[in-house]
Amino acid sequence: MSTTDIAGEIRAYVVGQFLAGEDTTDLTGDYDLIDSGVIDSLGLVRLLSHLTRAFDIAVDDIELTPDNFRTLDSITAVVEAHAPVRAA
């Protein structure tokens, strides 16, 4: 899965779960999801659960710091760093 595919899947999840019906034109890769209130602590738990299922990542492998989940770009980087490599 490419970086673009991962970022697109994560963006779709964030929009669908946390911004349904909202204008998402400002939701760029570096938009701060935590400081803006898009994702709160419960939202982080839900997002983490989604990432583990969608990308087959073990929770123990992810460093649970706010900076890893602050933006779509940082979330994408975490997934790329921890997702199992799939054969083509």
Automatic annotation (TrEMBL):
SUPFAM superfamilies: ACP-like. InterPro entries: ACP-like_sf, PP-bd_ACP. The keyword Cell membrane does not apply. It holds the Pfam family PP-binding. It comes from the Bacteria. Residues 1-83 form the Carrier domain. Keywords: Plasmid. This is Acyl carrier protein.
